[in-house]
Write a structure and sequence with these properties.
One of its GO terms (cellular component) is plasma membrane. It is found in: Cell membrane. The protein is mainly alpha-helical and about 500 residues long. It has 2 domains: about 1-215, no CATH class; about 250-480, no CATH class. Mean pLDDT is about 80; it is low at about 490-500. The termini are far apart. The chain is built from 15 helices and no strands. It has helices at about 5-50, 55-70, 75-105, 115-145, 150-170, 175-205, 215-250, 255-290, 295-330, 335-365, 370-390, 395-420, 425-435, 435-450, 460-485.
Length: about 500
């Protein structure tokens, strides 16, 4: 499966997932109400911290499977996958313990409004069970990614998403909405990992994930690689869940709802672009095994350019038509959600191109310094969010996410990544910024022109604006590509000699 096909498969799967998510969120919000929905988001954010005890082994599986499969070392591959799964059984037990403590402590929070404490506690425990189950079964998804079969993995995710949609529509109208939601997510998670396991065994006939394949020396090597990746994972979870937890603790779960609306749209935009990095990770492992650093550098530069183009296009669209999107989607006016969305999408213009470089570094085994950079950014994010929420509310939390990303990614991480990946400064700037700028400028002019018509909310108008903007963005970028492809490299232009 080629890199380009993997990325396109991920985008196609994400399109279906986005359509499902766009329908589900307002349906769940309208069915269970703001109090229960806010509690559901808050519970998942807090319980999600237990995912930090994955210990960075998820990326370790992808990296070693891609490397060892390229070398045809199948026995060694089985040892790595089995050893990591044995670790996951331990971390799953810890996850259950963590969520059990959270369920016990839930009664001390006085922000549940009129919700039943029993229902809250049951929901927390089921969510914890889902996390534990996901840890144990996630090795098979890692095998699929390591074998560069993201197309299969994304197809499974689409099927699971559709199943979850059907179950929510059939069951959510019943009593105990939070418990019902938790059970649905548990069932579909179980199904997802069972299907992944069956396909992984078919994809690698010699695959054997069993306790007797666990090796002490392999565990030591895994821990050595995963230790710093675990720090990066902790940072990712802190950044991902910090905003929701801070708002829930300071302002109450119901205040999470308007922030979650803006955050959810930003995440829907983020996921397909981040999949460029997910596809590059196993490719980087393969090229590293084959000593292909020059080719990897070219792939990274182009991937960063695509990430910057798409995130920039979404940022421009969100700035002009964010309120129209939220009003159409949710059916209710949330004044602060559009501003939160624009700030978070703006942050992605910096963060998403860096995801490509992070995954490339991870695929080549370079995890030490990026891990410390990530944790510093996460702590900066937490401190700034706690300060700004006191003065600016949920908008302050969004700004507390934006500032650390811009400062840390551009002035600390990027220079380091360029040195490690041997990226030429001028070529990277040309590929990642210069070639994308004309399309973004024309899109900005298009949005400014369309916004003067004061369009009313509605899916027809929204789809027309989105489609028109997409055509403008991609059309101008294609023309730029044609011009750049036909330009003569400076090294081929010979100066004329003077004649006397």
């Amino acid at each position: 499966m080629t890199l380009r096909k993997n990325i396109l498969a991920g985008w196609a799967a994400h399109l279906v997932t986005v359509m499902i998510g766009f329908f589900l969120m307002p349906y769940i919000l309208g069915t269970v109400g703001e109090s229960q929905y806010g509690a559901w988001v808050f519970i998942n954010a807090v319980a999600g911290y237990s995912g930090m005890i994955y210990g960075g082994f998820g990326a370790t599986i992808c990296r070693y499977v891609s490397d060892l499969s390229a070398r045809k070392e199948w026995t060694r591959l089985n040892q790595f996958v089995s050893s990591i799964q044995s670790v996951y059984f331990v971390t799953a037990a810890i996850a259950l313990l963590v969520t059990g403590c959270f369920a016990w402590a839930a009664g001390s929070l006085n922000k549940w409004d009129s919700l039943s404490l029993l229902e809250i506690r049951l929901s927390i425990l089921i969510v914890g069970g889902t996390i534990a189950l996901g840890m144990i079964g996630s090795v098979y998804g890692g095998v699929l990614i390591g074998m560069q079969r993201l197309d299969i993995k994304r197809s499974i995710e689409v099927g699971i998403g559709i199943t979850r949609l059907v179950l929510v529509l059939l069951c959510l109208q019943q009593q105990y909405g939070l418990v019902t939601l938790a059970l649905i997510f548990f069932v579909v998670t179980l199904a997802e990992h069972l299907i992944s396991a069956v396909i992984a065994y078919r994809l690698i006939p010699t695959l054997s994930v069993a306790p007797w394949n666990t090796r002490k020396d392999v565990l030591q090597e895994c821990f050595g690689f995963s230790a710093f990746n675990a720090i990066a994972l902790v940072a990712e979870y802190l950044i991902f869940f910090t905003d929701t937890v801070v708002i829930g603790l300071v302002l109450g779960p119901i205040a999470v709802v308007p922030y979650q609306i803006g955050l959810r749209i930003a995440q829907m935009i983020q996921i397909p672009i981040a999949q460029i990095g997910e596809a590059i990770l196993p490719k980087a492992g393969e090229l590293h095994a084959k000593q292909g650093s020059h080719e990897l550098g070219k792939i990274v530069a182009k991937g960063m350019g695509v990430a910057f183009l798409l995130s920039g296009g979404f940022f421009i669209g969100a700035t002009y038509f964010g309120e129209m999107l939220i009003q159409t989607w949710i059916g209710k006016h949330y004044p602060s959600s559009a501003l939160v969305m624009a700030i978070l999408v703006g942050a992605q213009m910096v963060a998403l191109p860096m995801v490509v470089t992070r995954k490339a570094l991870l695929g080549t085994g370079q995890v030490r310094l990026p891990a410390f950079i990530d944790i510093a950014e996460a702590v900066f994010n937490l401190i700034l969010s706690l300060i700004l929420i006191q003065y600016l509310g949920i908008v302050g939390v969004a700004i507390g996410t934006l500032i650390p990303i811009v400062l840390t990614e551009l002035f600390v991480f990027l220079p380091y990544a360029m040195r490690q990946l041997l990226l030429d400064r001028k070529e990277l700037f040309h590929q990642a910024v210069v070639l994308q700028t004309p399309a973004l400028i024309v899109l900005l002019a298009f949005c400014e022109f369309i916004s003067r018509f004061e369009l009313s909310s509605g899916w027809l108008n929204l789809l027309a604006v989105t489609g028109g903007g997409g055509i403008v963005l991609l059309g101008i970028r294609y023309l730029t590509h044609i011009v750049d492809r036909n330009r003569l490299p400076l090294t081929t232009i010979q100066p004329k000699t003077a004649t006397h």
